[in-house]
Amino acid sequence: MDVNRVRSMLLHEFPHATTPGQEQLMGELAVFLTISWKKANALFLLKGYAGTGKTTVVKALVNVLPTIGKRTVLMAPTGRAAKVMAGYTGKQAHTIHRKIYIAWTNKDGQIEMKLQKNLHRHTLFIVDEASMIQHVMPVEGQLFPTRNLLDDLFAYVQSGENCRLLFIGDAAQLPPVGLDYSPALDAAFLQNGYDLSIDSFELMEVVRQSQESGILVNATRIRQEISNQEIRLPLFQLHPFSDVTRIDGTELEDALNQAYSGSQRENNVVICRSNKRANIYNREIRRRILFLDGEITTGDYLMVVKNNYFWLPLESSAGFIANGDIVEITRIRKYEEIYGFRFADITVRFIDYPDEHELDVKIILDTLTSESAALSQADNNRLFQTVMEDYAELRSRRNKVEKVKASPHFNALQVKFSYALTCHKTQGGQWDTVFIDQGYLAEQMLNTEYLRWLYTAVTRATKKMFLVNFQERFFM
User: Fold this and answer.
1) Nearest to 249 by CA among 60, 33, 413, 439
2) Residue 77 pLDDT > 50
3) Model pTM?
4) Cβ distance 153 to 136 under 8 Å?
5) Hey, which residues does 209 pair with through a beta bridge?
6) Strand 268-272 versus strand 301-304 pairing type
7) What gap in Å lies between CA 102 and CA 189, rounded to an integer?
8) What stretches of 427-470 show up as alpha helix (H) in DSSP?
9) CATH homologous superfamily for the domain 3-207
10) Do the Cβ atoms of 213 and 51 come closer than 8 Å?
11) Where are the alpha helices (DSSP H) in 66-135?
12) How far, rounded to the nearest angstrom, does the alpha carbon of residue 416 sit from its chain's CA centroid?
């Protein structure tokens, strides 16, 4: 099929009048699907600001691919991002980890992760929220080496028959933790590191429908300041929009009560700049808004803050419990204090995977209110060494290590309450109502990095955004 025919089909699938940028993109995608596709190392890089119609483009693409003899696999870095992707395409979407990795039992009886065999043919793997994809090099001597997700993703896709990749993302969002750029959206990095043939395009024109949304109008203004690499206050325009509201501490409780008065509390989130601040919000939301007593209780929502390969059975479609998964406590069976830490045996259901059965797990309570993103390396090592003391009678250190790696306590889920989260923890997801807490902001902190944090937070909201305790100078 020729380029012009594919371009016409893509345009035909568009439900709105296209912007000039979208029309040009249809042509670029048509070239990629017909000409560039013939190169075994072809990749399309689609970047775009919030409100420029990336999701509409992807839906049109997904609808057209079967008619030109190509299949589609949709992926995203987190469960919530995959759920969002499935919602706007109407097709099943997977997390990257759950699609490309498989859990297996090694000769020592321990569970490890390895790449699945890619059995797909003539398939375009479309990866949304690609700005989040980590490129982590393994640390020598690490007990549980971290796999390089970007390396593994390329290896998996390229091992299939005539399979290609398309990355979608917004380079203005926060990069992966520990980096000042997003490797999967950096064409030069990808070209040098993976010897790819890259077609790329960036959507910059905000579509007419987005101009009616205060959330997207304000996101666009912040994005422009990021592009200019400067900050010109004020940033926020409140009028005439009803979906953006400025509130102070005296109005916050009423706004939270109204947001949580519905039945789906998972559709609300407070975004904070630190775990310490998120802990305060979680404590007060549980106590004063949800009237939840006790350290944890049935009905509490928790976010898993570290990948866990221990609790789900190998035959589970989910594969493992991922960093960023949100679960609801449905039953609490017992509490336990051992190895210098506190644990609870609970039953949970997966919010973003309604088809997954409820699961009995052990959680470590110490991470609930810690000021680090997860259990610190020092605490993790302390837990490891303390559990290993149970196997002092074994002569071989290797045998001791294998026993610890099979311990339910060492493998306890690391969790935090999910009512208030740091911006990195919300990335890739969307919530109906988002409260953004400005927190402490000294003059020297007002820089491009802060704007990227703010832009990412603003673009998590779909229906209503509250700006909490923001300084007067931020508003027009």
Assistant:
1) 439
2) yes
3) 0.91
4) no
5) none
6) unpaired
7) 28
8) 448-458
9) P-loop containing nucleotide triphosphate hydrolases (3.40.50.300)
10) yes
11) 79-89, 96-100
12) 16
As given in the structure block, the two tokens for residue 17 are 């009048």
Which whole-number Å values give the CA distances from 68 to 1, 58, 60, 64, 74, in the listed order? 7, 15, 13, 7, 17
Token pair of 371, please? Answer: 């000021």
pLDDT in tens, 12-51: 999 888 999 999 999 999 999 999 999 989 999 999 999 9
Tokens of 148: 């390089």
Cis check for the bond before 234: say yes or no (omega within 30 of 0).
yes
Alpha-carbon torsion 274, 279, 284, 289, what sign? positive
CB atoms within 10 A of CB 160: 17
Q: For the purposes of burial, counting CB atoms within 10 Å of the CB of 63, is it exposed (0-12), middle (13-18) or buried (19 or more)?
A: middle
Burial 234-251 (b: 16+ CB within 10 A, else e): ebbeeeebebbbbbeeee
Residue with tokens 């106590």: 287
Distances (CA, A) of 460 to 157, 352, 467: 29, 16, 13
Where along the chain do its domains lie? 3-207, 211-472
